[in-house]
Amino acid sequence: MKLAPLSLFPESALSHSLAAGSFDADGLYCEVAVLRFTGRYRDGSRGNPDADYMGVVAAAALARATPDVLVLDLRALDYRWGNSILGVFVDVAEADREYPVGLVLATSPRCRPALATLLGLDPRAEPGPEDLLQDGLEAALTRARGLALARARAIG
Q1: In whole angstroms, what is the distance from residue 72 CA to residue 21 CA?
Q2: Who contacts 39 (Cβ-Cβ below 8 Å, separation ≥6)?
Q3: How far apart, in whole angstroms, are the C-alpha atoms of residue 90 and residue 88?
Q4: DSSP class per residue in 88-145
Q5: How many CA atoms lie within 13 A of 60 on its CB side?
Q6: pLDDT in tens, the chain (156 residues)
Q7: Contact in structure between 132 and 53 (CB atoms under 8 Å)
Q8: What is the C-alpha separation between 96 and 68, in angstroms, rounded?
């Protein structure tokens, strides 16, 4: 068997940062992590390495922070099209099959129209308070708090 070098982080011009916080509500402890991606996600299949990078980083973030909810802060991500990014969302949702980790996307005009279209949503519609896509970080954190509390209640 011949071994080939493998980079832990696939080649991508994207960058990331991770922050986490916690809160108590109704006697339950909840954790939320915010994983921010910045840069230009390449179009179409050329973006596959960017999605791979995001997936590896998201998996590491879930292992490091162990949150009830992961907010993907995509406000500084230039994203126009490419469906491999869906795999990142699925991987987060399936990280804990018994008590799924919540997912919220903090968006901006740099990525929201394309993400909405990819997810089968009307890109012109205003997001509701319970939607996956949220305009801005504060709205995403508000949604994340609700999801975190629901997960904490489910776990007990």
Answers
A1: 14
A2: 12, 13, 14, 15, 76, 77, 78
A3: 5
A4: HHHHHHTSSSSSPPEEEEEE-TTTHHHHHHHTT--TTSPPPTT-SEEESHHHHHHHHH
A5: 13
A6: 999 988 888 889 999 999 999 999 989 999 999 999 999 999 999 999 999 999 999 999 999 999 999 999 999 999 999 999 999 999 998 999 899 999 999 999 999 999 999 999 988 888 888 899 999 999 999 999 999 999 999 998
A7: no
A8: 10
Question: Which tokens go with 137?
Answer: 């970080």
Identify the DSSP state of 42. Answer: P
- C-alpha of 110 from chain center: 16
User: CA 153 to CA 156: how far, in whole Å?
Assistant: 5
Cα(32)–Cα(142) distance, rounded to whole angstroms?
Answer: 11
pTM of the model: 0.94
Tell me the C-alpha distance between 117 and 109, whole Å: 13
d(CA 139, CA 126): 12
| Half-sphere exposure (Cβ direction) of 48: Cα atoms closer than 13 Å | 2
